[in-house]
């Protein structure tokens, strides 16, 4: 076989391979005009090589970050080195829809990108090659794992029934708020409260109905507090709230809002419609508590005074 024929066959095989591989190949000149556009790119973009040839890539794909890609291409051409961009750095360069049935939960194709210099016979870089890899499967799996880990972390910090912080997490925040006060002296107040006669609710209507009462209490509390506040379920029917940058009088207003809302509300259950009340104790932090546990105790003392005073009321421990 003649040499020219061998070279022609080799060229044909190479072109056929470049057209059929499951990797996007895009060759750009240094003015970022498209010189090569393989079958992968045609299939996912719907644009043929003939249609895009010699066009500036940004004119066809205006959503590509122009300054970013230009800077990357200039660096590759100037330094004559290859660069790699992971999907974790930039999810995709070309906004192609995800067409994989297994990973169809993602709307767009996640891509890794390699930019390589292409030199002419004189060794000077004349073009760059973009290799686009579909890594949607990898990205989907990792993102799903991250979401699962976030959910597990959230579950480890929150009470399952109410969605409030659990006791351990909330107590840690009380300790941190106590230390913040010791260091900076910022005003901060603690609230402890519980559901009046909750044992009677459970004994009369059952524990499932009791759970609905607890959930309603948590919902009312979450709606009444600010984003900077922290509410937690301290025990069965006992709750706590940390109110940073709030004095006892400000806390009293918030607590009255919660107490009145609960007093006026009715919890509808399969057993009966339940009305109930809560008692609340407030303790603004000062220099007397020697640790956060003593601060908690002062709020608890105020709560007990509210109960001894007839329940369904708010008491400040001064």
TrEMBL record:
Q: E.C. number, please?
A: 2.7.7.65
Instruction: Enumerate the catalysed reactions.
Output: 2 GTP = 3',3'-c-di-GMP + 2 diphosphate
Q: Which Pfam families match?
A: GGDEF (PF00990), PAS_4 (PF08448)
GO terms of molecular function: diguanylate cyclase activity; kinase activity
Entry keywords, A to Z: Kinase, Transferase
Which cofactors are reported in the record for this sequence?
Answer: Mg(2+)
User: Which EC class, in a word?
Assistant: transferase
What domain of life?
A: Bacteria
CDD domains per record: GGDEF
In this chain the GGDEF domain maps to 186-318
Q: Which InterPro entries match?
A: Diguanylate_Cyclase, GGDEF_dom, Nucleotide_cyclase, PAS-like_dom_sf, PAS_4, Rev_trsase/Diguanyl_cyclase
Q: Entry's SMART domains?
A: GGDEF
Q: What is this protein called?
A: diguanylate cyclase
List the source organism: Marinobacter lutaoensis
